[in-house]
Write a structure and sequence with these properties.
Blueprint: H1 25-30, E1 32-33, E2 40-41, H2 54-67, H3 70-90, H4 100-125, H5 133-149, H6 154-178, H7 183-202, E3 207-208, H8 213-220, H9 229-246, H10 248-258, H11 260-265, H12 270-296, E4 298-299, H13 307-317, H14 329-348, H15 354-378
Antiparallel strand pairs: 1-2, 3-4
GO molecular function: transmembrane transporter activity
Transmembrane segments: 70-90, 110-126, 133-149, 155-175, 184-204, 224-244, 275-294, 354-374
Keywords: Cell membrane, Membrane, Transmembrane, Transmembrane helix
């Protein structure tokens, strides 16, 4: 403690246990004797604040997960699953939730929406939106189906679909960042453009394909209670979890979405980061389109209409802040799973069709309010 200013300095932190500590030459030169002849002190470093025990590391991990909005949605998802299991045990005939046929349906629909939510969520974290996601999805599915039906291999058709999805998204990113037009306006216009382009490319009839057994095994294999799309979701989820939460690019995405001016001040190029985020969305959209095309064997020109809203809804439910700078890949996946689980519950319960949108809408609004409360506490 400084006698003049009364401020606490790094040298005033006592050594744990009050015993004298012999450090190397650097530390010994910084050690001083406290007033009154008490134990010597040393400078405090960042390592002193790092979690040391398993319990402390677990607490820190839970704090990080909660800060990204994934902990709460994870608890809600677990509670919903427990409720479904109990309901099934009470009335297995009236509510066949744990039946193989029901799991097959969920394991085909959840991965597609979750992959779309990952792409949309990464872009939202970067501070931008893409309302042309559904039109991009339709066009990529048509490209894959048409190329495969015309004799191209599944890999060539899939590669062309991936290039198409990424190119469409990059055009949106370049127009948004270089022309300084809000992404909402750019992607709204491009949504209408690509919907018309899909009709021009394929016409009003459905594009048909008959995937080979090998293609089915690669993209939609029957794994008993689950389908092959789950494996694709696991791969994509792990890849983008590492990219977003364990790579420097992920730090840049969070920084640009949270405060572009501050990111620019530390030599981060916000335009470049946002364009990359648009490209990530395009990749996810194209992959989801290929998975859907192989499963259905046909693609209508309006197949992806409304998917952009579902993907954004899944990110909101998963804890992604619409203002940017906050979210997690795990939350995006859980948000998609929760929305489709609620729809499945309503269908199994025999609820009328219009109830689906009603309950999903309530979930989205409730999740947005909850996220807003969390952001308010953080501030």
């Amino acid at each position: 403690m400084s006698e003049r200013s009364g401020q606490v300095t790094a040298e005033s932190v006592p050594v744990a246990g009050g015993a004298a500590v012999e450090d190397d030459a650097t530390d010994s030169t910084s050690a001083t004797s406290a007033p009154g002849g008490s134990a010597p002190t040393r400078k405090r470093t960042l390592a002193d604040s790092a979690p040391a025990t398993t319990a402390e590391r677990l607490t820190e991990r839970l704090r990080q997960v909660r800060g990204r909005g994934a902990l709460e949605i994870g608890l809600v998802f677990v509670l919903v699953q427990l409720g479904c299991v109990i309901y099934y045990l009470v009335d297995p005939v009236g509510f066949p939730y744990l039946e193989k046929s029901n799991f097959n349906v969920l394991s085909q629909s959840i991965p597609v929406l979750a992959i779309l939510a990952i792409g949309a969520g990464v872009l939202i974290i970067a501070g931008e939106f893409d309302l042309s996601l559904g039109a991009n999805f339709t066009f990529c599915a048509l490209v894959f189906t048409r190329w495969y039906a015309d004799g191209a291999s599944a890999w060539a058709a899939g590669g062309m679909a991936l290039l198409t999805g990424i190119a469409i998204a990059l055009v949106n990113g370049i127009l948004t960042t270089k022309a300084r037009i809000p992404s909402f306006i750019v992607t709204l216009g491009m949504m209408l453009f690509w919907e018309g382009a899909a009709l021009f490319y394929n016409g009003t009839t459905a594009a048909l394909m008959v995937p080979s057994e090998t293609v089915k095994q690669v993209f939609t294999a029957d794994l008993g209670f689950f389908r092959g799309q789950v494996l694709w979701l696991l791969g994509v989820g792990v890849l983008f979890w590492l990219l977003v939460h364990r790579h420097r690019l992920g730090n840049h995405i969070f920084a640009v979405g949270g405060n572009p001016a501050a990111a620019r001040a530390i030599s981060i190029n916000p335009d470049r980061v946002k364009i990359i985020a648009f490209g990530i969305l395009g990749l996810c959209v194209a992959l989801a389109a290929v998975l859907t095309a192989v499963r259905t064997g046909s693609v209508q020109p309006g197949t992806g209409r409304g998917m952009e809203l579902k993907a954004i809804a899944a990110t909101v439910v998963g804890g992604v802040a619409l203002s940017g700078g906050r979210g997690s890949v795990l939350g995006m996946v859980l948000g998609a799973a929760l929305i489709l689980t609620v729809q499945d519950i309503l269908l199994l319960g025999g609820a009328p069709g219009f109830y689906l949108d009603l309950f999903v809408g309530l979930i989205i609004v409730a999740a947005a309010l909850f996220n807003r409360m969390i952001e308010g506490r953080a501030k």
